[in-house]
Design brief:
Blueprint (H helix, E strand, L loop, with lengths): L2 E3 L10 E4 L6 E3 L13 E3 L6 E3 L6 E4 L7
Parallel strand pairs: 2-6
Antiparallel strand pairs: 1-2, 3-4, 5-6
């Protein structure tokens, strides 16, 4: 479940989001946000490192339950 840390509910801002395996594949803006005027939806490769920053809006995503699949 996507969990945003902060009080603002606006998507595509410089915020920190905690995500879980259920949120994968990860996209920004998140799938549950209806923002027609935001940046283009991009899929972010978070699985390898456990964290990623959106190149458009600088939102940071952290994978909470990262488990090694190797």
């Amino acid at each position: 479940m996507l969990k945003k840390t902060g009080t603002d509910d606006q998507a595509c801002t410089q915020r920190l989001y905690e995500v879980t395996q259920a949120d994968l594949p990860l996209s920004c803006p998140p799938r549950d946000k209806r923002v027609w005027d935001a940046h283009p939806r991009v899929y972010l490769p978070i699985e390898e490192t456990g964290a990623v920053i959106c190149p458009y809006c600088s939102a940071k995503y952290i994978l909470k339950d990262m488990t090694s699949t190797k």
